[in-house]
Amino acid sequence: MDGSRTSLDIEEYSDTEVQKNQVLTLEEWQDKWVNGKTAFHLEQGHQLLKKHLDTFLKGESGLRVFFPLCGKAVEMKWFANRGHSVIGVEISELGIREFFTEQNLSYTEEPITEIPGAKVFKSSSGNISLYCCSIFDFPRTNIGKFDMIWDRGALVAINPGDRKRYADTMLSLLGKKFQYLLCVLSYDPTKHPGPPFYVPHAEIERLFGKICNIHCLEKVDAFEERHKSWGIDYLFEKLYLLTEK
Question: What is the arithmetic mean of pLDDT over 143-167?
């Protein structure tokens, strides 16, 4: 590989259109859980979040933290253990049940009256509630506003054609003085169709720039052996902090 491809300052692809017609249905995402195709799950949690978590939380307790497309993210337990209220949305009921089982948490489940066929799963302690529904149906629950969003594996999983709708949904859920933590991936989108999809800085500016200050906190080399099967030879992850303008 040439030097530019090993640099964390690699030039991004300006062509954001290359993946624009890629679509995965909710059923296809559910099938990934059924078939165990969940390599995106991090059993040890996200190391960049772990590194910056105490800085983000600033010693506060009682924050409302939202996990879009949460899967069975162990980070939800991190926030709950620090005294925060965690709300997640996930289309896979299997993923939600696996979270509670793997974290040794007892839970209850009940229907969501505002969304026919949807359910909410609540930890017995009451500080983790996971909604099994589409992210676009979720606002119908009138859940209120959040202090923080942890968006890892969410924006990058949304079909590119739905990003504006997704971003507007996220922004509608944010309260005052919010912190929106966003992870995106950089790779050659002409070599891998996604998901996860390629989201360049310009796209983040387009989606969030009118409402948010956008800061790239860190870039790390995220390439692993398994990514060779994607047809790519580099992969970088970026952690952004979005705050109120």
Answer: 96
